[in-house]
Amino acid sequence: MTNPATQTWGGTAGVPAIDVRDLHKSFGSHEVLTGIDFRVALGEVVCVIGPSGSGKSTLLRCINRLEDPTSGQILIEGVDVTHPDAELDQIRTRIGMVFQQFNLFPHMTVLRNLCIAQQRVKRRSKAEAVEIARANLVKVGLAEKEDAYPAHLSGGQQQRVAIARALSMDPDMMLFDEPTSALDPELVGDVLAIMRELAAEGMTMMVVTHEMGFAREVGDRLVFMDGGVIVEEGDPRSVLAEPRHERTKAFLSKVL
Ligand code: ADP
Ligand code: MG
User: How wide is the angle at C-alpha 36 spanned by C-alphas 102 and 93, nearest 5°?
Assistant: First the structure.
């Protein structure tokens, strides 16, 4: 019998990119995710909104296995990443993650930040890693910053570097956890523009965000979470314009 944790990777038509089944996650006696079921199709952009503490970050962190789910199942491209034999390093190279705090190494140049995981995890040669890093810096509009240290960049530039770093691992999908929440308002647009471009290129994306304009225009689907469950999901325009549930209405009335 095939071991579901070691079966070959690669998107297959008809198999969801992400398939979350009855996911529960507790910290001690606090159940933070109380039964999450949803799927993300190949190339789909799903935006996730919800009040602080509703479990959005925990959900993303369970998907790339930064957290251990308490129960339930998560399949990435059909591979069970919650299986005890799941190879976590391999899973994480498939799933790019971008955080609110950019998490760049402060003592390394931009180029080095983009190369280190490529060399250590992907086992790429330095020359190959540099070539891929440079191509991704061009993509995020920061080709001229390869020798800069993170502290000398604006928050928006640091976040673009973090996106380029994630892309340099050739992920099949990208998870964004409030990527613009730590940025000054005038820097948000550049980061969203890159995410919009990635979406247009067909990248599978889950984006936790408070940017309702982005969710409306770029999202294929909008998910509203509250209290560790998905309360409502659907076409972003419909959910934003005509939320069905009281909790969604109450949340949107505060943020729109
Ligand atoms: P959101 O991203 O929607 O704001 P989180 O997923 O960060 O929500 O957190 C959901 C709940 O889980 C919060 O009550 C938070 O305090 C709790 N929580 C998150 N991570 C941990 C942890 N490592 N240990 C204990 N509690 C946690
Ligand atoms: Mg969060």
Answer: 40
Q: Show the CA angle centred on residue 171, arms to residues 167 and 175, nearest 5°.
A: 85
pLDDT digits (tens, 9 = 90+) for 111-169: 999 999 999 999 999 999 999 999 999 999 999 999 999 999 999 999 999 999 999 99
Within 10 angstroms of residue 54's Cβ, the number of other Cβ atoms is 24
State how far the Cα of 95 lies from the Cα of 226, in Å rounded to an integer: 25
Q: How many whole angstroms from 147 Cα to the centroid of ligand 2?
A: 31
Atom of ligand 1 nearest to the CA of 178: 2
Q: What is the pTM of this model?
A: 0.94
**Structural contact between residues 195 and 18, judged by C-beta atoms closer than 8 angstroms:** no
Using CB distances shorter than 6 Å, the residues near ligand 1 are 27, 32, 50, 52-58
The torsion angles phi and psi of 230, rounded to 5 degrees, stand at -85, 115
Q: Which residue has the tokens 């579901």?
A: 4
